[in-house]
Design goal:
Blueprint: H1 16-83, H2 89-111, H3 116-186, E1 190-201, E2 206-209, E3 218-225, E4 234-243, E5 259-262, E6 265-268, E7 271-277, E8 282-288, E9 297-305, E10 308-317
Helix pairs in contact: 1-2, 1-3, 2-3
């Protein structure tokens, strides 16, 4: 009897080494998959960011182009406003204000060249200024037309008046000449003008003449107002102006209260006196003091009345 050989059993259990290798392979595959997903996500994000950056660049360029267009319009508007001129003070003041406003908008456009909102606002304001300018053009043209009409009417009236003026011109000249003659004839004259230095005795009741500067208390100016029947009889202020050797006007105080007019000029008077003039010859003495005393030298003296120098003299003190 033959004996059957024993069948060998095939083991289905995995080798531990093979299992370890298989696990490593799986981990490797997972890592590769994760890496691929990460790279894909990064690429997607990069594309998104690149697209956004490109969009921002395009928008920024568009804003700058819009800013340049607005600036060009503002500069053109500025030139047009500069050509608008009018004699109407109110309108001219408004035009000047608008020119200042345009200059401010140009500065704002330069400062905010990347701000789309500001540029849009500037465009709206530019459009408003252009509409306002058109209104001013119409208003100025209307005023110019009105002025031309008024000028034409004025020229007609002037033409009509010229003939009348021609008739009365000679009469006016004759009247003016006569008035000048009367005015000159009515000016008072100071004759026999002289000046002397005096000091006082007996409590000011007596005076004695002296030409020593250190002893002079006042300069006595004497003259005679001549008879003048044409001059107006009234109380008149007569002024004495004294210029000292050092070229200064002697006065009690250098203020408006001590100023007077003469021959179209103004100066300080040393003394004034109210004279009751009655068209007849009148002798006058005026005593002039000096707050700073008197110094040696020549003093120039003017006598004035009715804004005219009517007499002059001088005195030299030692």
């Amino acid at each position: 009897m033959e004996t059957k050989p024993k069948e060998e059993k095939i083991s289905t259990a995995k080798n531990p080494k093979e299992e370890k290798k298989s696990d490593k392979k799986l981990v490797f595959i997972v890592l590769i998959a994760l890496l691929a997903l990460g790279n894909g996500a990064f690429a997607w994000l990069w594309l998104q960011e690149r697209g956004r950056a490109n969009t921002e660049v395009i928008v920024k360029e568009q804003v700058i182009i819009e800013r340049d267009n607005v600036k060009a319009e503002l500069l053109d508007l500025q030139d047009q406003y500069a050509t608008l001129q009018t004699n109407d003070k109110t309108i001219q003041a408004d035009l000047d204000a608008k020119r200042v406003e345009i200059a401010g908008l140009l500065e704002e456009a330069e400062l905010h060249k990347n701000d789309a909102g500001i540029i849009a606002k500037l465009r709206n304001e530019t459009a408003s200024l252009r509409k306002i300018m058109k209104h001013y053009i119409i208003e100025i043209d209307s005023l110019n037309t009105l002025n031309k009409t008024i000028i034409a009417e004025k020229d007609k009236v002037s033409e009509d008046l010229n003939s009348e003026k021609g008739k009365s011109s000679q009469l006016s000249k004759d009247k003016s000449a006569l008035q000048n003659t009367v005015n000159l004839a009515s000016v008072l004259k100071a004759t026999g003008t002289k000046a002397e230095g005096v000091k006082f005795k007996s409590g000011g009741k007596k005076e004695s003449e002296t030409n020593k500067a250190s002893r002079v208390e006042k300069i006595k100016v004497s003259f005679v107002l001549s008879e003048n029947k044409i001059a107006k009889a009234e109380t008149k202020p007569v002024y004495v102006r004294i210029v000292s050797p050092d070229g200064k006007e002697i006065t009690k105080s250098p203020d408006d209260a001590n100023m007077f007019s003469y021959n179209g000029s103004k100066g300080y008077f040393a003394e004034k006196k109210e004279i009751n003039y009655k068209n007849t010859q009148l002798g006058v003495d005026i005593f002039c003091g000096s707050p700073n005393g008197f110094i040696p030298g020549k003093y120039l003296i003017d006598i004035a009345c009715d804004d005219v120098i009517i007499g002059q003299t001088s005195i030299t003190l030692k």
